[in-house]
Amino acid sequence: MLAIMQTNFNGIDGLVYRDIPQPKLTNHGVLIKVTTLPVVPTDWKRETNAHATSEQLTSLPRTIGIGAVGQVVAVGRDRDAALLHHRVLVMNPTGSYSAYLLSENPAFIFPLPDDVSDESAAALTAGPGTALALKEAIEQHSATNIIITGANSVIGLYLLQMLRPTTHHLYPVVSPSSQAYFHEQLPALTSYTPETLPQLDDPLIIDIAGSSALLDAITTHCGHASIVSIALMTYDSHTPFQFVHEKFDPAHYQTFIRQLATHDLIAPIDRIFPVTQTKEAQHYAHDSHSRGRVLVTFNH
């Protein structure tokens, strides 16, 4: 079966397409025929640096990817037989970019209702879970003025959806080239550039963009700011700073799926590439302004 493998730390162009054996069903396993995969920053970071992420160190060779959507084609005798033939979202931190994958962790499989598409479900990987961590940080902070950098990103758009309704004053910050896209996605919100951001006292800056220069500009412009970041682990400043990350909880993903089904949550999706163009998909996601989650698909 086809798999996308990392064998070195030469970046996106170092990826290889390999034919590897299909995994064998185990008593505790569920075999999934993969249809749709998200392109997430975790992968291209790991493709250049074994220590780029805090989740796990990278040992090579490895199948890339951390999540996928597919159809269950076989179920081990110690697993729920009702999963057979169901579409599922699966988290598989040991690699998901293969035509078939074997999942042995019941907490990592989420059956999908008919009214949630493969594409929307795949876009839940590395998105709303992180946004929820940011939402909780906002709720725990005393600030009423909330500045959000990278508001047009996938995580930014999920976060702003989760904050509706809110008593906070929201100041989404996007680049001039992303303002039109942002207003297409969330027309009820006003966006700001760093130049048009009003002078605010005691704001909480939610940092999704990960730009120290942007944080410098905002903290200089606004007095007594605090920062919560998912993109920077440290920030060389006297400004109060906290790094947060997603704490995986299966119950959260069950909620996200229900919210997709009821349209209380909309998954932002950009381009879809065939899996044989995974390198091109990663380059596009890495090099372009965020316009939603980039996906790749298998054509079985």
Q: Any overview of this molecule?
A:
The radius of gyration is 20 Å and the shape is globular. With 300 residues, the protein is an alpha/beta fold. α6 (212-221) links the parallel β11 and β12. The longest helix is centred in the middle third of the chain and has 13 residues, at 128-140. It has two domains: 2-125 and 268-297, Quinone Oxidoreductase, Chain A, domain 1 (Alpha-Beta Complex); 128-243, Rossmann fold (3-Layer(aba) Sandwich), CATH 3.40.50. It is 24% helix and 24% strand. The model has no long low-confidence stretch (mean pLDDT 95). Strands 3, 5, 6, 7, 8, 14 and 15 form a seven-stranded mixed β-sheet that branches. A five-stranded parallel β-sheet has the order 10-9-11-12-13, sandwiched between helices.
